[in-house]
Design a protein that fits this description.
The protein is α/β, with parallel strands linked by helices. The structure holds NADP nicotinamide-adenine-dinucleotide phosphate. It comes from Pseudomonas helmanticensis.
Amino acid sequence: MQHIVNAQGLNMPKLGLGTWPMLGDECTRAVEQALELGYRHIDTAAAYNNEDAVGQALANTPTPREQIHLTTKVWWDQLQPDAMRHSMERSLKALRSDYVDLFMIHWPTTDWDLPRTLDTLAWFKEQGLTRNIGVANFPLPLLRKVVEEYGIGLSAIQVEYHVLLGQNALLDYARQHNMALTAYTPLARNKVSHIAEIQQIAAKHGVLPTQVALKWLLDQSNVAAIPKASSASNQSANLAALEVNLDDQDRALIASLSKRERQVSPDFAPVWDAFDQ
Ligand SMILES: NC(=O)c1ccc[n+]([C@@H]2O[C@H](COP(=O)([O-])OP(=O)(O)OC[C@H]3O[C@@H](n4cnc5c(N)ncnc54)[C@H](OP(=O)(O)O)[C@@H]3O)[C@@H](O)[C@H]2O)c1
């Protein structure tokens, strides 16, 4: 099986490590450990306050930087061009890198000059500060506007996606436009372990419910997933999910679950697409 998502120049390992809410030495240790286990995709953000800890892990690891896919993001109150440039500078310094592989707008806002924000995002790519650009938490109408009205070549969108939350419309759009869709909170914060149907599928294959939930995502074209795990045992189990074989019966059972259980919706979140609520 191919474990890479290819989209508009992006070559992103399908399984990555989420780093929020790890901080400091705990985060450094977890990232180093993940790289040692074979992870090659790390997800961070300016707002996680752990870019320095991730950067320390990148400095410590024997894994060459060019073998690691690194995503970071700019927070929604830093989307004016100057503030965005400073955010990018701080991120690169903390990450001890000359570039990131994917730079994303973390959340949309309504208080912005959208064309100037998008120009700055595109400029980062032109300057080689990031290899690819993307957005997170954009509902479909806004994503369409960015891609179709402003003609911005996005390589990826990052949104909450798991067995309890559907993202069919965004995923169709991502596929039509050759973009990756990165699933965040892919374990619904381990709620997946307590769903009877997922437990049943896991028992049938002799694997963990978390592995079933992850493999359901990883089997989908254009989809990557970034579970956060701090212990070596959880990190290894999540990596081993790539080897699980789900069948049509399993997928039908997962399709029958409620797909409206969003875990992440802060007060600054946009109005979500109606079909996802
Ligand atoms: N773009 C955005 O707005 C956004 C929003 C939220 C999250 N994210 C990204 O997505 C990442 C993941 O999301 P998340 O942290 O919200 O949720 P998640 O990955 O669904 O769940 C993380 C929780 O699951 C546990 N876990 C991981 N592997 C496990 C396993 N094999 N068995 C049992 N429990 C397991 C972790 O525990 P241990 O740590 O103890 O292993 C942790 O408590 C974040 O770290 C962040 O990078 C992005």
